[in-house]
Structure formats: structure tokens, C-alpha cells
Write a structure and sequence with these properties.
446 residues; alpha/beta; five-stranded mixed β-sheet; 44% helix; 20% strand; binds zinc ion
């Protein structure tokens, strides 16, 4: 220490500031772990901080006799980077044995969960930090592993251990008024890149992803809902549907008392899909090939699915011009009008009015003069007329399902896709499941 620090205080901008100047204590403060002695630091590509626990000789947990030291072993843990350098905590752990030959306890190694969980290769603080970076801020495991200077598995194991404890915390499941089920593509795997789906279980009112279960056949979400218990299921007033009969059957079995509402997001999405199908068919019929860069119908594909009110005057006249050029029978234009009329449905306030609107719309659409895609849309609207109109009684917002899908997509994009369902589930729930992050400090890693 130079002269300025003598006496434990320094002058800073004219004021006296008390500082710690005892070298041993300074090191302990910098290392910041409870009840450890810092044995030394090794400087290499990463910083190695050697520590041992300060606690005195323990008694045997079985019989209470003072333990004997058997041996010391060294455990190297990945710690938070220190002053910009990857850091390793080298823990000199003592192994104790019971001196009483009749005691069944034998020997044991000291442990301290405040430093590190026995099963993880990260220190406790590094594990919690990695969980926040990956789970809350949506960074990739690779990126975080790079900052810590360790491999992907080390970080992923920690995210799973802390993340699972956080997302399975019972406080995350409050009573749900509006419940939604939604299929989400989980992965394309195998030789033929077969699609594997998952089902998102969503609190539509609060916009919270409750859980993700594998498959879209209904058995898994049914089992999940059943396991929530009758009281929780009883509080569900509205069940929102994505126009799939499978999920309707799940709701019939689990929440028969709840009102059925077709999610506007999925209704509009279907209308857009039918419009897209129609555009591709007409493209093929008129030009005999799939859309190319200069084909009028290909050029207007984005303008078609955009909401009409979001098209500016220029976009609108461009769209009409391209349709005149590429859509001789006006079929794509018809499908476009159909889509816009479906969207208009949600401008009504009144459920009875909306029902008659759906009925008239469906009647128009199934007319044989309509393009085949519009007729198909009309049949679906007819099949779901009550659920579509019921939205006007409940006004369950359209946003949450869409927002949830976007969050899940972001998680998948950051990870470049998932192949392991447990990883996918934890990451999606940490990011879109609204866990209480203030609890992270107190949960015990699994
Ligand atoms: Zn003993």
C-alpha cells in the first residue's frame, strides 16, 4: 500500500473516505464469498482463485463425534468473469471421516450451497447469472458460455437446474380466467425433416405462457390440465380455440363449463393462408410455374396479407395494378376481399350482430362461383360460427397469443432450433412464461 492509504482512509475530492487496507480482507471483499479463506490466485489464460472453507472442524452428522480430516480434494468451478477475465474458483474441499468405528457414517465431503451446488460445474452466482442471461434476456447458451470461458453443456445444465426450479414454482400458476391452447412447430427432424409439434398452454388474459407439452394430438394438454385440479379448472371462464377440433375435444373433457371462443388471431391467420393458397394456384395456372421475382402475383404477396388500413395510398394502387396484371379472373382479388371482410368482423361490438354477419359472410363464401379457397374458408367459418361470434361477448384480446408465438419463435431462432424438448420447454417458459425473477435468489437448483 502506498502512503495515501495509511490509516485506512483516503482523501477523495476533498472528503475523507474510509477504505479497507488490510490485504487479506481486501482479497476477501473482492472474491465476495461467505466464510472462505482465499489461499492464492494463479494468473493464466483465466484467473484461478484458490479458496477453502473457514469453518472449524465439524461433528459427525450421524453421531456427533468430532470428525477427523481424511483428505483434501480440489474442485474447479466456473465462476463469474473477474475484471474482464474468465475466472475459475478452485475450491480446496476437505473430506472428513467419523473416528468412531461403529458409526455407519464413514466419510463425507464438505459442501456449501452458497458457493456451489454439488451437481453443477458452475458456482452458484455464475449459475444464477447464466440463467438470467439466457432465460430472461434471451441470449444464446453459446454466447454466455463464451463470456464464462466454458462449454455449452456447463451453462445449459445450470440453466435447466435453476430454470426448472423457477418455472415450476407454484406461484407462477394463478387462477386463469381465459385459457388458450395453440400448436407450435417444435422441430423438423430426421431424414425427411418431419415436423414435430408442441402445444402451448396460454393464459390468454394475462398473456402468459403457462406450459409447453409435446405433441398436438390432445392427450398431453388434457393430462396437463387434469393435473391442475378441479379448483383451478373451475376458475376458467373462457377457452380460446385455434379452430382445431382436437383442442375443442380437450376443452370438452376438462373445462366443459367454459365458454368457447375462436381466437381472432387464428381466424385472420386462416383467411390469410387461404388467400396465399389462392395466389399460388392462380400463379401456377396463369404462368405455369411457381412465383418468380418479376411475376406480378409474386411481387404483391406481402401487400396482399398486409392489413388494408396499413397500406398507404401508394401500396394500395400498386397492389391493384399488380392484381390487374396477374389475376385475370379476379380470383386473388376475391380472396383478398374475403380476408379483409373477415377482419372487419372484429369491428362489431355486438355478438348477435356479429353472428348474423358471420352467417351472411359464410353464405356468400360457399357460393359455387367463388374460388375454391374462399369456399373452404366459408365452410370453416360456418363450422365455427358460434365460437367466432362468442368473441364479441368476451373480448379476449387477440394480442397475447400472437405475442406468445413471437416470443417462442425468438427463443427458437436464438438457439438455431431445438432438438431436446426439455431445453425448449425451459427456455420458452423462462422467456415467455413470466416467472417471478425476484425468486431466483431463493430457489434451490434441481
Ligand atoms: Zn459418526
Amino acid at each position: 500500500m502506498d502512503g495515501a492509504c495509511q490509516g485506512g482512509d483516503i482523501r477523495l475530492l476533498g472528503a475523507r473516505v474510509v477504505v479497507e487496507s488490510d490485504p487479506e480482507r481486501m482479497v476477501q471483499l473482492l472474491v465476495g464469498l461467505p466464510e472462505v479463506n482465499v489461499l492464492g490466485v494463479v494468473e493464466g489464460r483465466s484467473l484461478e482463485v484458490h479458496v477453502e472453507c473457514r469453518r472449524s472442524r465439524p461433528g459427525c452428522p450421524e453421531c456427533g463425534v468430532a470428525a477427523h480430516l481424511k483428505e483434501q480434494r480440489v474442485v474447479t468451478l466456473v465462476d463469474l468473469p473477474c475484471f474482464g477475465k474468465p475466472t475459475r474458483l478452485v475450491w480446496h474441499k476437505r473430506r472428513w471421516r467419523c473416528p468412531d468405528r461403529d458409526c455407519p457414517n464413514g466419510s463425507w465431503t464438505e459442501c456449501d450451497d452458497r458457493i456451489a451446488s454439488a451437481r453443477l460445474a458452475l458456482t452458484d452466482r455464475a449459475g444464477r447469472w447464466a440463467t438470467v442471461e439466457v432465460g430472461r434476456f434471451g441470449r444464446s447458451v453459446n454466447e454466455v458460455a463464451e463470456v464464462l470461458g466454458c462449454d455449452w453443456h456447463t451453462v445449459n445444465d445450470a440453466v435447466l437446474a435453476y430454470g426448472e426450479a423457477l418455472v415450476d414454482h407454484p406461484d407462477r400458476f394463478a387462477a386463469v380466467q381465459a385459457l388458450g391452447l395453440d400448436e407450435v412447430l417444435f422441430v423438423r427432424a430426421g431424414l425427411y425433416r418431419r415436423q414435430h409439434f408442441s402445444t402451448s398452454i396460454v393464459d390468454v388474459g394475462r398473456g402468459q405462457l403457462l406450459d409447453v407439452v409435446p405433441g398436438r394430438r390432445g392427450a398431453e394438454p388434457k393430462a396437463w390440465l387434469a393435473s391442475q385440479g378441479p379448483e383451478w379448472l373451475g376458475s376458467v371462464e373462457v377457452a380460446t380455440l385455434d379452430l382445431s377440433g382436437t383442442y375443442r375435444a380437450v376443452f370438452d373433457a376438462t373445462v366443459p363449463h367454459a365458454a368457447r371462443v375462436a381466437d381472432p388471431f387464428h381466424v385472420v391467420k386462416l383467411a390469410n393462408e387461404k388467400l396465399d393458397e389462392c395466389r399460388r394456384r392462380v400463379q401456377n395456372e396463369t404462368l405455369g410455374h411457381r412465383g418468380r421475382k418479376h411475376d406480378p402475383l409474386y411481387r404483391c404477396r406481402r401487400l396482399l396479407t398486409k392489413a388494408d388500413e396499413r397500406l398507404e395510398e401508394h401500396g394500395r394502387s400498386k397492389l391493384l395494378g399488380l392484381l390487374r396484371a396477374g389475376d385475370p379472373k379476379g380470383e386473388v382479388a376475391t380472396a383478398w376481399h374475403a380476408k379483409e371482410t373477415v377482419r372487419e368482423l372484429y369491428c362489431h361490438d355486438d355478438a348477435a350482430l356479429a353472428l348474423s354477419f358471420v352467417d351472411r359472410l359464410a353464405d356468400d363464401m360457399v357460393d359455387p362461383v367463388q374460388p375454391i379457397e374462399v369456399r373452404s374458408l366459408g365452410r370453416t367459418l360456418r363450422r365455427w360460427r358460434l365460437e367466432i361470434a362468442a368473441w364479441h361477448d368476451w373480448h379476449v384480446s387477440n394480442g397475447p397469443t400472437e405475442a406468445m408465438n413471437n416470443l417462442i419463435k425468438r427463443v427458437k431462432r436464438v438457439a438455431f432450433g431445438f432438438t431436446n424438448f426439455a431445453n425448449y420447454r425451459i427456455r420458452a417458459l423462462l422467456y415467455a412464461g413470466r416467472p417471478d425473477w425476484s425468486l431466483l435468489g431463493s430457489v434451490t437448483p434441481r
